[in-house]
Amino acid sequence: MILDIIVNGLINGSVYALLAIGFSLVMGVARIVNIAHTAFYMTSAYFIYMGFTYLNIPPLLAMLCALPVTVALGLLAYKFFIKPIQEHEAAVLIATIALAMVIQEAFLMVFGGHYLGVPPLVSGYALIFGVKVTWQHLLALGVALAVLIGVRFFLMNTKIGLAIRSTAEDREVANLMGMNVTAVAMWAVAVSIGLAAITGAIVVPLVVLDPHMWMHPLIMMLAIVVLGGLGSIEGSFVGAYIIGFTEALVVFLLPMGSFLKDPVALTIMILVLLIKPEGLFGVVFEEER
Amino acid sequence: MRRLGLFLVILLAGLLVVGTSGPAQAVKPIKIGVAGPMSFTQGEGHWNGATLAAMEINEKGGVMVGGTKRPIELIKVDTNEFISIPDATNAMELAISRHNVDFLVGGFRSEAVLVMQDIAMDNKKIFIGCGAAHPKLCTRVTKDYDRYKYWFRLTPINSTFLGKVVFIQLGTVAAMMKKGLGVKDLSVAIIAEKAAWNEPIVAAAKKFLPKMGMKVAGVWRPSPVAKDVTAELGAIERSKANIIFTSFSASVGIPFAKQYGELKIAAPVVGINVEAQKDGFWKATGGKGNYAMTLNTYAKVKITDLTIPFYEKYLKTFGEAPNYTAGTYDAVYLLAKAAEKAGTINSDAVVKVLEKIKDVSTAGVVVFDKSHDVTWGPGYVTSLGTQWQDGKNMCVWPYKWKGVTYEGTVPIKFAPWVIKRYKK
User: Fold this and answer.
1) Residue pLDDT, tens place only, B323-351
2) Is the pLDDT of residue B13 over 90?
3) Closest Cα to residue B204, out of B269, B145, B158, B137?
4) How far apart are CA B117 and CA B111, in angstroms?
5) Chain B partners of A216 at a C-beta cutoff of 8 Å?
6) Residues of A in contact with B232 (CB under 8 A)
7) What are the extents of the domains in chain A?
């Protein structure tokens, strides 16, 4: 059972980490609480479904095509909906909620509430120490870890990464030092939406597509970033695995209460906040940045 | 002269009123509100079933009430009950107060239908349920007849009978495992989404499985909208269960079947999986839903003489097979027949006819019991068991059950990996 928990926790945690890091990145750099983040994850998943079902292109190619299209859509949304009100945090929050609802309703209008699916890229399962894990789950885990390493490399070893980190550290000082914070924010948005789109591509063969599929990951992602510390990338990474493992633990230890996996994860977040209000890796309060 | 002018003006106005009141004197349609979550398959089933019935009745001139043939007009009542129960109550209020519907059919989620039922009852509108299974919807009729007598349930059979049927199907699978695969001591994993309608089924499963000579390997209660149940499936496999008993009405049925097939869990699945009743299930699971078995209402088998013509016409008209919410087809016909017999659309008069009706419908012979619930059993409505077999949703039950085998029914098949587990 311990192995089951480890394998399932790793998979859950990696998918959550991809979403939460993208969210934290844009929050740290551009101070945008992007509630529509998981709506872009859903958009990517639907684009893949459309490519596979209506254009008859293979799922892998559909995934590769969906990524740039989703990022482009995200950048357009940023430019026209978010950027004009970027300095008003409450307005941005409300605007991104509205944006997510628009995306949801658009998919509901086109596809209805039907549950749709995309076949796995690889079929079958592997036996890892006696635990059955589908190849698709392992692929998702591998890609998620590779992307996480890639994001770390990008942030730590490139000029743009450095600029993003500096802006996240102190936007005003970065601006005074002559950095084009608007361009950096644009980059951060592109990377963030890109991560959401990749997550969508990773999970689309594993989950059921429906126009409300963005809601649950949004709640979990918010829990993770609050748990890890608002705007902290390391915190999001650690928080994602805590929540991922908690979910797996609940299912295996409380089978009758497996529907409680989300409330339990959220309760852990609340408990951490009661003990450490700034989260695991966060600065004390936003105002003190 | 002025008086004559005034008289002429009044006469002209009178003629105009008479002239323009022509359409108002035309035959008034019977308005039936079709309530359901219209953006979802269940609501589409409600609407499509009712539409087909109304179309057929109107083509024949309408419903003969009090010497006049009145057409049926359907009102779409989008309850959005999957997302919001207040939306469902608002839609019902709107249908009754603004659209002045004469009758109501439909409803899906028991939690929402219980509230929708109250609104219909308070307005003395007959509401034929075609989707919600909770027994309370009908026990209310016996407990407070004067208030709830306007409620009837047509599909599905109530969750107590649903439980009974799935236990019979479970018993059939268990017997096959004992006889065909030589398994002696059977244990059953119960996996049921966390929802109100499921509580009596889970309680009954825990109570009756030991009486049926089977152990309960464990009970798992995922969220109705869980996207990934590999952890639950892993735990079920660890429990070494021989059979998996499912009870799903929501989207969780798809990832369950998909991941069950992907992981080749070596235990046959029997029970309820509403998603597996739909044509889109095969595509949604990428074909991994093979061998998924579920309780069902419709399949291309001859339950009555009406079943196959209805099934084919529905498929031709809407491009998909009917699911149990399409029972609105029978509900609209029942209302039409009852109104014709009562000679009025007055709710109290129609209730009296419906209470005594014995009608051959597409899902069996409909007779309502004292609680206004559809009667279950051989010779009435039995429900079906269907199984996905190589891309086709085949009827597998009743099969030689109390002398009932509907024409077109085939035997249950076990997945090769289930057979492999026992035939080493």
Assistant:
1) 889 999 999 999 999 999 999 999 999 99
2) no
3) B158
4) 10
5) 225, 227
6) 251, 255, 258
7) 2-212
